[in-house]
Design goal:
The protein is of the alpha/beta class and 354 residues long. The protein folds into two domains: 225 residues, Rossmann fold (3-Layer(aba) Sandwich), CATH 3.40.50; 97 residues, Rossmann fold, CATH 3.40.50. The protein is built from 15 helices and ten strands. The strands form two sheets. The protein has a six-stranded mixed beta sheet, sandwiched between helices. Strand 4, helix 5 and strand 5 form a beta-alpha-beta unit. Helix 3 runs parallel beside helix 4. The longest helix has 15 residues. The chain is globular, with a radius of gyration of 20 Å. It binds ligand F0G. Ligand F0G binds next to helix 4 and helix 9. InterPro entries: Ser/Thr_Dehydratase, Ser/Thr_deHydtase_PyrdxlP-BS, Thr_synthase-like, Thr_Synthase_bac/arc, TrpB-like_PALP, TrpB-like_PALP_sf.
């Protein structure tokens, strides 16, 4: 087997880098496309999961960050800033320290899962807890980057989307063509836009014969693209996608319409149920936001809105260990059997037969 070199080296000819761009990489990407037998049975379709939680910092953000930080390094940036619901800040901090830059992180106060903040801390991030939501943080990050010596690496930075489009290349490379439908969660709307760019590029160059319908799912309490207007006070258990005014609004709407796809909402209950089914049936632990696509797919299948026999890829965007508290509270208190270190007592308590 060949060693995976990270998305910039793997797809260099399709990315805006030159021979002199310093490549800052943790060998992100090359993530597994895992067949999903239970979801396939439930939907009557051939379902695969693109498991992005195995990236170096545990989410898909690393794909865009390797490029954004490499380009910032090329420009001589000494500090970088982002607004984040958690994963972008974890990724930015990791790549920034590798490049010798100072990571400046703006997060909505009290609304980021602990492990994500811990990642930003261990990577030396300077963290500001903002009295406001993600949308306020993003406005602040833009203002800081305009007036101070700090480069903005949110997905309004075009290098982020360019890096993230490599996920679509990988899916098409693995399957031999684009799928019929690509499903994913939507928050700030960068990822759905990036996948669409990737699929469109491959189709335009005849690497693939077609482009998939893009199906995006937002949380019901944070579904501005579904309602067509920004949401002032977004709320959802899926804190990663608690966003009321997505930066890539127009790009996401184009991806939906040009692909003949849809953007719809799923409830927090549907999201948590899908997270539990992914863990309990497919063996994949993802964070709540990452289950929104699966929740949407199941909802469409169960209400008869999904044609059978289709080839479907669902991106699960971040690892379950990113937000253990939400999962634990949904499953109830963790209470293992307390037993003596004795085999027959253990077998009895654990219900094992001879
Ligand atoms: N899933 C996870 C786990 C995320 O962290 C995000 C976004 C999304 C889905 C939505 O992707 O924004 O491209 O539509 N997280 C950003 C962050 C906002 O700050 O980490 P999107």
């Amino acid at each position: 087997t060949r060693l995976w070199r990270g998305v910039i080296e793997e797809y260099r000819d399709r990315l805006p880098v030159s021979g002199t761009t310093p490549v800052v990489t943790l060998r992100e990407g090359g993530t597994p496309l895992v067949p999903a037998p239970w979801l396939s049975e439930q939907t009557g379709c051939e379902v695969h999961l693109k498991v992005e939680g195995v990236n170096p910092t545990g989410s898909f953000k690393d794909r865009g960050m390797t490029l954004a930080i490499s380009k910032a390094a090329e420009d001589g940036a000494e500090a970088v800033v982002c607004a984040s619901t958690g994963n972008t800040s974890a990724s930015m901090a990791a790549y920034a320290v590798r490049a010798g830059m100072r990571p400046v992180v703006l997060v909505p106060d009290g609304k980021v899962a602990g492990p994500k903040l811990a990642q930003a801390v261990v990577h030396g991030g300077v963290i500001a807890s903002v009295d406001g939501n993600f949308d306020d943080c993003l406005r602040l990050a833009r203002e800081l980057s305009e007036e101070y010596a700090v480069a903005l690496v949110n997905s309004v930075n075009p290098y982020r989307l360019a890096g993230q489009k490599t996920a679509a290349f990988e899916v098409a490379d693995d399957l031999g063509d684009a799928p019929d439908v690509h499903v994913l969660p939507v928050g700030n709307a960068g990822n759905i836009s990036a996948y669409w760019m990737g699929y469109s590029e491959y189709a335009a160059d005849a690497v693939t014969t077609r482009r998939p319908a893009m199906w995006g799912f937002q949380a019901a309490g944070a579904a501005p693209l579904v309602h067509g207007v920004p949401v002032d006070a977004p709320e959802t258990v899926a804190s990663a996608i608690r966003i009321g005014n997505p930066a890539s609004w127009e790009l996401a709407i184009s991806a939906r319409d040009d692909s003949g796809g849809l953007i719809d909402a799923v409830t927090d209950e549907q999201i948590l149920a899908a997270q539990q089914e992914l863990s309990g049936r497919e063996g994949l632990f993802v964070e709540p936001a990452s289950a929104a696509g699966v929740a949407g797919l199941l909802h469409y299948a169960r209400t008869g809105l999904l044609d059978r026999g289709r080839r479907i890829v669902v991106t699960v965007t971040g690892h379950g260990l990113k937000d253990v508290d939400t999962a634990s509270s949904y499953y109830g208190e963790i209470r293992p059997y307390a037993i003596a270190a004795d085999a027959s007592a253990a077998a009895q308590a654990l219900g094992l037969s001879r």
